[in-house]
Amino acid sequence: MPEFITPRLRPFGTNIFTTMSRLAAQHDAVNLSQGFPDFDGPVFIKDAARDALYAHSNQYAPMPGVPALRRALAERFTRDTGLPCDADTMVTVTCGCTEALPATVLGLCEPGDEVIFFQPYFDIHKTSVILANCAPKVVTLRRPDASHPEFWFDEAELRGAFTPRTRAIVVNTPHNPTGKVFTRAELQQIADLCIRHNVTAITDEVYERLVYEPSRPHVSLASLPGMAERTVTLSSMGKTFSLTGWKIGWAIAPAPLTAAVRAAHQFMTFSIATPLQYAAAAAIEREQEALGPLRELLVNSRDLLNAALTRLGFRTEPAPSGYFILADYTPLLKAGEPADDTAFSRRLIERCRVAAIPASVFYHDAELGRPLLRFAFCKKADTIREAIRRLETISGA
User: Fold this and answer.
1) DSSP state for residue 321 in the 8-state scheme
2) Which pLDDT score, from 0 to 100, does residue 2 have?
3) Of 102-111, 130-139, 222-231, 311-320, which range is least confident?
4) Which of 107, 117, 358, 362 is 20 to 30 A from 129 in CA distance terms?
5) Using an 8 Å Cβ cutoff, are 205 and 173 in contact?
6) For the chain, what percent of residues have pLDDT higher than 90?
7) Distance between CA atoms of 144 and 310, rounded to whole angstroms?
8) Taking the CA atoms of the chain, what radius of gyration do you get in angstroms?
9) Structural domains counted in the chain
10) Which of 287, 315, 334 delimits the end of a domain?
11) pLDDT tens digits for 17-58?
12) Cβ atoms of 248 and 236 closer than 8 Å
């Protein structure tokens, strides 16, 4: 049978989330692999979607998004950043952040341009660069050590990644999969390099509302001096409102950059489900009602899972934001057994019936991720407790 997949996509195969969720279903495993809640968002948002089916058109929405949602997003962006935001020329509604990112890269970059991003990364960051026939330049977020209590990057390595061919940098904060919240000082280093080299920043901020440490607030890169005119800010409602299946995201940028995003978006999805956009506008206007209970649930589930993993012998990294815990499983290996995150994650599914993600898939240099697994804690407490009960059999696995 001939191979029809284009060579640039062959190395990716079926994405790891599909693979692990399929294995979880086959083995009746508790699925802590894919980052989706096992509960729905607030009833008032679903009610808004139901009402919108009858109160509004069910035909194509305007290509940039329905005006009500773009207005709500523009007002929200101004509240968050202090920056003016014109709903008509600066906001584009996309099919989740998963579309927003490749649309931005495709709209901005020429084949052969270099795009910088950090590893570990969410897979769409790398594949967006490859789809655009651009060259990936990877900077490593290093694991905590005696001198660094959280994931960190080397400023010299970042500085060296910028060349005359650099067109853009992708910055994901709060970060998946590490949970890192980039500090203002770190963002300033990135901003200084973007300004010096005339590089556009593309920020993935989908976990912006799911930050759990008040002393470590989320900062939008666009809000730093000199960055408003050179930043495309991406986010979505899926994580904030526990409605990942709605796939409603957005890109916010000054008009010239927005024109680039829309140039690609119009030929990728054109427009997003019309009634859901009206419901998303209602959700954003009342988001504080959803956030308090959600953060409390996530923090409790995180702490419950993290304590159990530590007790069972994993080495865990702090998760000050997001959905995930990165855990080093190598202390559980038998003497002389090599680190193989894919094999160990399969062992967990088959013998403990718990699914996690092998972290090497998040690394350009896969060996850096071999000692790690990613566990999702965006689950109800009962789900986490059942996963822990099953993981307690790990000594026999």
Assistant:
1) B
2) 54
3) 311-320
4) 358
5) yes
6) 90
7) 16
8) 21
9) 2
10) 287
11) 788 888 888 989 999 998 999 999 999 999 999 999 999 999
12) yes
Residue tagged 């939008």 (tokens): 220
Whether residue 213 sits in one domain with residue 142: yes
For residue 12, pLDDT over 90 is answered with no
Which parts of 38-92 fold into alpha helices (H)?
Answer: 43-55, 67-81, 87-90
- Residue 1 pLDDT exceeds 50: no
Residue carrying structure tokens 């998040």: 362
Q: Are residues 274 and 295 in the same domain?
A: no
The reply to whether 98 and 221 lie within a common domain is yes
Token pair of 31, please? 């699925």
Written as six digits, the tokens of 249 are: 């995201």
Sign, CA dihedral 157-162-163-168, equals positive
- Hey, what are 161's tokens? 């990644």
Residues 359 and 300 both lie in one domain: yes
- Spatial strand order in the sheet of 166-172: 91-94, 249-252, 231-236, 200-204, 166-172, 114-119, 135-140
Q: Is the pLDDT reported for residue 151 higher than 60?
A: yes
Pairwise CA distance, residues 73 & 251, whole Å:
10
CA distance 129 to 3: 22
pLDDT value, residue 345: 95
* Domain carrying residue 15: 10-41+289-396
Give the integer Cα–Cα distance in Å for 41 and 238. 9
* Exposed/middle/buried for residue 142 (C-beta within 10 Å: 0-12, 13-18, 19+): middle
Chain center to CA of 299 = 18
- Token pair, residue 41, equals 């968002």
